[in-house]
Amino acid sequence: MNNENSTSTLSNDVPKKNPWREDVLGFSGFAKRLSQTILSISSPDGFVVGLCGSWGSGKTTALNFTKAYLRKHNQELKGQSVPVTVVDFEPWLFSGRTDLISAFFQVLAEHLPDDETKAKKLGTSLGRFAKENTDSLAGLVAAVGLTVDPTAGLLSGAATNMGKRSLDASLDRWLSTPSLQTTYAQLVERLKAEKRRIVIVIDDLDRLSSDEIRSMMQMVKSVGKLPYVTYLLSYDRKHVWAALEEGRAVDPLEPTFAEKIIQQELTLPQPSLSALLSLLDKNIGFIAEGIQASDRWYKIVSHGVRRWMKTPRDINRYTNALKFTWPALENEVDPADIIAMEGLRLFEPKIFDWIKANRDFLFSEGSFGFGADDAKNEQVEVLAKLIALHSDKSVIPLLACLFPTRAKQITGREHSIGEPHYQVVRRRGIGHVNVFQTYMAFGLSEDTIPFSAIQTVFNNLNDEAALHALFDEWLLKKDAENQPVIGELFTEIQYRMIEPNAVKPTQELLNALFSIGEAVSRMKAKRGFFMLGPSQVLYLLIADILKTYSPGDAAKALNAALTAKRNVAYGVETFNDYGRLLGEIGVSEERMDSPISKQDWEVFRDALKPLFEEDLASGEYLRYPKTWATIRAYAYFFGEDQCKVWVVQSAQEDAGFLLGTATSLLTETTGSHGTSFSIKEAPDVDIYDLEALLPIAQAFEEAATFEGEDAERLAAFIDGATSWLDKTTTSGTIS
Question: Within 13 Å and on the Cβ side, how many CA atoms surround 23?
Fold first, then answer.
């Protein structure tokens, strides 16, 4: 069954009617006092009460509650007491038509049942008059106003101009319809004699156009000014007052025209913030119930939500926005961030538009990725101007909370420390670029890993088969630029193994990651200067997993992963990676501390060697994706001299091995004109025999064995090797 707290039920903006059961904003007491006042006053000349409040503030609810108390009064009457007649007249239903007066008296006639004949006559006469009238509504109002109440005058100069062309014709029609004057006079006398109390409720005056507002108020002042009739009008003061004074020269010492019409004006009481927030809490509990209390949540509430909630309509708008957005983004975007972003979109659209337009600034992409301080400062200045014009300084800590990597620039505080990025990623905050894209695209983009995939990993940490199936599926997926996205999945896993609340990895997870290592290494992924490819992210993830093992156990875990599916190719890469970090292979790059000890590495080495030898004997090594790792492992196990000969032999036998060898000697540069390749400044001549490899490469080039980027690599190797050999021959340093 649907209720207001259900995401399938949008909140309506329908005013409440029952003050005893539906008063969630504290209007009941106000309405009760208003009804009692109306009942207590005597108005032989009529009386006009104005109830003003901003759009969406709950005026109609307050009117409904007042009418409910008046009806209750009628129900409790005893004896011969005459009930109060409550008449609802909704002028905006007749907006743009010429029968406003006719419609008013027809509605009034329907509420005078004890003189049915006269009521029908009144309605018929006025209806006939209205139908015969083809002039503008303003002309009709001017004519009737002057005829019935000559002291009323015309509403304004604007009304006079509009009515000039039809005034004489309207007067002629009026004077030629005696039944109209007679019926109206009879109505006035009957109301005087009966002292029947009538309350005419006219709601939403501010929905009318300026001309229609003036016409409606002129009618209330003239033909509608009836004995013992109390008008209860509701409106937004700034709209109605502006319409009434339009075109008039206002003397500040004289009362305004509105003040001449409305004898008592009341301002609708502002609902308390606690009442508004309680209603909001009831309406959006479906999204807020899972949010943990934290300093971050407090900032979103205090610097955002509490500022935005000012009227009941704000609650309804906000509730519907969240109910519409949540099904598309549930689990994919942090619920607290959705609440914040939807609030900015609805209530501070200029700030929201700035956020939407400044993706590169917020995430240090594009030109902002190179530390362009001037450009960053310029964007912050734009934001500051927008805040000054359209918002409040309270939005600054809110934005810093949503985008912590830009907290320093947004707040202007040099030492502002934002939320750690791994926490942003882990909770799927809007401050993570992929989540930002998901929110702005109203659903997952092709670049984003769904929360369900992450949950599958952590729900199956002890199920290797399930993990294999998931990883195999994501090996095939590409982003909008046709680049593999599995690296994003590795990042999501990695961030959830960082303290606090770190997830403890399992052997099954390590086995599954190790098993796809070769496929990941084979992937061709183009990344920018500051982005890591899938193989680099997998390397870091496995390193983090190995750090959780104690000495001795890391070797056991690695050996188990190596043999789980005989993952020799990736084992060779791992052997090289950690051997370099430990200074056992080549020159240590000192990129990070080794995740395993030298002793663990040696145990792993001993387990790898016989498997590697089997692949060397079978030729399986020719399929390894990282030729440099294969060559380095061979040199370590069998010596550099033997390796030098073996590399040439393998290159002669297999074009792929030759290309892999050439690639291992090249550097890759990505610029505005694409990717270019060049040979390294100091090829390791103890392992690579360039003199022997060069003619092999030339033969493959002549045979057009490769194409595309592979052909470019081969050409770059040939050019570089030729140049290198020329220089070393000239200097006599070649060995």
Answer: 16
Which helix (H) or strand (E) covers residue 265, if one does?
A: strand 264-267
Q: Which residues, including other chains, have CB under 8 Å from residue 650's CB and lie 6 or more apart?
A: 621, 622, 657, 661
How far is CA 327 from its chain centroid? 13
Residues 255-266 have pLDDT tens digits of 566 777 888 889
Distance of alpha carbon 277 from the chain centroid: 21
User: Residue 264 forms beta bridges with which residues?
Assistant: 49
Contact 689, 651 (CB under 8 A): no
pLDDT at 578: 94
SS3 state of residue 229: strand
From CA 367, how far away is CA 372, in angstroms rounded? 7
b (16+ CB within 10 A) / e for 621-633: bbebbbbbbbbbb
Place of tokens 């599916």: 565
pTM above 0.85, yes or no: no
* Residues forming a β-bridge with 735: none
Which of helix, strand or coil describes residue 478? strand
Give me the sign of the Cα torsion angle 95, 99, 100, 103.
negative
Backbone torsions φ then ψ of 653, nearest 5 degrees: -80, -25
Distance between CA atoms of residues 145 and 139, nearest Å: 10
How distant, in Å, are the alpha carbons of 38, 303, 304, 440 from that of 391?
41, 11, 11, 22
Sequence-separated (6 or more) residues with CB below 8 Å from residue 89: 103, 104, 107, 108, 200, 201, 202
- CA angle 71/77/81 to nearest 5° reads 115
Closest CA to 279 of 518, 13, 541, 530: 13
Residue 320: both structure tokens together: 């519907």
Alpha helices in 428-506 (DSSP H): 433-440, 451-459, 464-475, 486-495
Q: Per residue in 160-198, pLDDT tens?
A: 333 333 333 443 444 455 555 666 677 778 788 888 888
